[in-house]
Amino acid sequence: MKIRANGIDIEVEDSAEGQRSDKPAVLLIMGLGMQLVSWPMAFVQALEHAGFRVIRHDNRDIGLSSQFGHLGKPSIVLTTLKMKLGLPVRPPYQLQDMALDAVGVLDALGVQKAHVVGVSMGGMIAQRVALAAPHRVLSLTSIMSSSGAKGLPEAKPKVIRALFKRPSSASPDAIVAHYLRLFDVIGSPAYPIDEAQTRERILLGYKRSYNPQGVLRQMVAIAADMGKRAQELGRIKTPTLVLHGKEDPLVPYACGEDTAQRIPGAKMVGIDGMGHDLPPGVLPLLLAQILPHFATAAKGVGTKV
To answer: For residues 68, 69, 73 and 76, what is the CA-based torsion angle, rounded to 10 degrees?
Structure first.
């Protein structure tokens, strides 16, 4: 369903749609260029079966939410050069704006507080939500994400090449082949993906919406936030769980460790054999940490004042 949040249109999937619900809410925030349908249904259903109201949304500029083509196509080369020279990066919008979009989703749905879970860029946005609206966040879970601090390890060269490589054409076959190669490079060594299922998932996303320029604008928003958010994370008082794959080639494990070290009282859990994806075999390992984290936060255990 489409809602109005933070002055833009946001596409939302709410497990309580059309119903009154007193279940505790979980807000799931996806990563760079990924749509709400990128959340594995097994993960969503496990949260629902555990008694939670699960809310997913398309971030701005992706999926069925408002797109920002009028802001133009940013130059990633120029952005990278500015970062290396220490010059300011001026993005079309900020991660802070995306965080306020997420808070706006809660507003539109009448949800006062939620457990906020984000993966990759979504983890960065979730951190921003906890900073901007701490009274709305029951708990924070940051998965395969980063503090954005300067000097942290970067992605492996082959990952960077795969990330910036363009599909050979705009045909569905070329798009699917491109993302299959990317997911193979960043995926979990101990949990190989099923190619047929992954192909189907990629095609689903492509048919739903395909907006590569939106991905570029999101990338610049990430770049502009680097170095800033890290200095603010010490203000987070929300019970925080940081989950990170020890074999993550895109956002190295040290990035998760740094995030946990900067948030007072945060719990850090590394997942052996996990890369930068959410394969079926990893989901039970994540849920085994997330569900007790929710329960502890709900009881107020470990809440910092």
So the answer is: 30
